[in-house]
Write a structure and sequence with these properties.
Blueprint: E1 4-12, H1 15-28, E2 33-41, E3 46-55, H2 57-68, E4 73-79
Antiparallel strand pairs: 1-3, 1-4, 2-3
Length: 80
């Protein structure tokens, strides 16, 4: 499969509960990540993470599926 460039957006609703697992999942898929930006939005009670990735669609599915299975995490991806 061909690798494609893309962005994965992650919103963590309960940082205390899920931040550790989010970081663990991203680390396990670290070979896909070109860049990462995280912003805590304390006034809204969420944290936002943007990942720039280069991956196959199967690899993106694995990453986003694992992240999306966490209770307070919402995830979207876009590939070009």
């Amino acid at each position: 499969m061909d690798k494609r460039m893309g962005v994965v957006s992650v919103i963590v609703g309960n940082r205390k509960q899920d931040a550790g697992m989010v970081n663990d999942i991203i680390s396990r898929h670290g070979e896909l990540v070109i860049a990462r930006m995280g912003v805590p939005c304390r006034d809204r009670g969420v944290s936002v993470i943007a990942l720039i990735i280069e991956a196959t669609t199967n690899e993106v599915g694995s990453l986003t599926g694992q992240l999306g299975s966490l209770p307070s995490v919402r995830v979207k991806s876009s590939l070009v």
